């Protein structure tokens, strides 16, 4: 169904307001009335665009990357590292990403089993790994699809433990450590001497992008 | 408070019945009445031992390893690998473990932030890594406490993605791949030539243990 620009704008406003509610209260604590009072939108508008709270939660999961401005640069391992560190700092403050990740982790609690939010990242990571493979930065025994799955898995678990332990305050350092121990099994020794693992790089890139709200990718 | 043997037995029966309900319905879908009808225990007995559903969920999380019989053998990397592969097969069928892990993952959905269930595994993994370090199996730059955290993180995320994608059918292979890519950053080349990464080893050990229900550790 093609949407009018106005309908698309309303739909996005609903998703943004819902993200704020889901991020704070989780799926089970969220009420549609919290979304209307936060956004000034009507219950009718919500039900015009979404069939249920479940449907809205899936939309927030799927839109988790929409507010991101992923780091630029040549495709490959360095860019993949920079993306993971950028995500670590966004997970500390980007409401849409935090809500989407929270819902993806807790989806079992509301009876959903949707791997799309993870597979989006698997695809994105696989692209960068494919570029790294093409320039000879990966060890010959590496299977790109497997490493993409492993990285998204490790990332998901790392952010989960960091969230529970420190409310994600230590997530950037944990991601640096993840790479420190994973790179010897993935990248050539030559590539490893070139790669930078600095959480501050992602933070600087991110600060420069503030005020720029175009969608990521 | 010291418990009588009978009270301890009742408490364990409640936890086992609750695990079955939480594993199937999650925290939010679980009702205490499901636990009484499953166990033949009374609501009074549940409230004698636990103050609330929340309290009971924490107890199931904490008891997640109680039905396990972890692989024997010399302490160190091989044993750690065997434990992770054993856990992968138990996660396919052990109700108490499945319930405890489900609750630990979804705990945000019911307002709990309890890192104890993860830290139990971090401690266990650190013990084996410490033994590996003592016999010179780890690379000199390895920080045992960091690798223990990383392994539990990667494991948690891997089981989460495997659960969503295949109901954990592919978890053993995913754990083998996790080790394949992580070992070069952790273990010496000499140690790596000795280590076996075979999901079937854990399965065989596990089959031999069937019928033996003594608590793990």
Order of helices and strands of chain A: HHHHHHHHHHH
CATH level-3 fold name of the largest domain in chain A? Tetracycline Repressor, domain 2
Number of beta-strand segments of chain A:
0
Give the CA-CA distance, first to last residue of chain A. 24 Å
Helix count from the secondary structure assignment of chain A: 11
Pick out the low-confidence regions of chain A. Answer: 204-217
Can you give the mean pLDDT of chain A? 90
- What's the Cα radius of gyration of chain A? 19 Å
The greatest inter-chain interface is formed by: A-B, 43 and 43 residues
Strand content of chain A: under 5%
Assign the CATH architecture of the largest domain in chain A: Orthogonal Bundle
Shape of chain A: elongated
Total count of domains of chain A: 2
**In CATH, what is the homologous superfamily of the largest domain in chain A?**
Tetracycline Repressor, domain 2
CATH C-level class of the largest domain in chain A: Mainly Alpha
The largest sheet of chain A is: none
Which class best fits the helix and strand makeup of chain A? mainly alpha
Quaternary structure classification? homodimer
Keywords (chains A, B): DNA-binding, Receptor, Transcription, Transcription regulation
Protein name (chains A, B): Gamma-butyrolactone receptor KsbA
Pfam families (chains A, B): TetR_C_45, TetR_N
GO molecular function (chains A, B): DNA-binding transcription factor activity; transcription cis-regulatory region binding
């Amino acid at each position: 169904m093609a949407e009018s620009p106005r309908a698309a704008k309303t739909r996005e406003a609903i998703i943004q307001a819902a993200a704020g509610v889901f991020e704070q209260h989780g799926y089970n604590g969220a009420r549609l009335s919290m979304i209307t009072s936060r956004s000034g939108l009507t219950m009718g508008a919500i039900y015009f665009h979404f069939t249920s709270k479940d449907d809205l939660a899936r939309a927030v999961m799927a839109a988790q990357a929409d507010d991101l401005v992923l780091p630029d640069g040549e495709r490959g391992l360095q860019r993949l590292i920079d993306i993971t560190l950028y995500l670590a700092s966004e997970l500390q403050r980007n409401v849409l990403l935090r809500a989407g990740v929270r819902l993806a982790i807790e989806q079992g609690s509301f009876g959903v089993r949707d791997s799309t939010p993870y597979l989006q990242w698997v695809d994105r990571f696989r692209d960068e790994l494919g570029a790294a493979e093409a320039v000879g930065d990966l060890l010959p025994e590496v299977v790109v699809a497997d490493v993409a799955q492993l990285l998204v898995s490790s990332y998901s678990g790392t952010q989960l433990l960091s969230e529970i332990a420190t409310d994600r305050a230590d997530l950037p350092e944990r991601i640096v450590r993840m790479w420190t121990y994973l790179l010897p099994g993935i990248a050539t020794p030559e590539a490893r001497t070139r790669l930078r693992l600095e959480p501050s790089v992602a933070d600087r890139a991110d600060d420069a992008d503030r005020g720029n709200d175009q969608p990521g990718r």
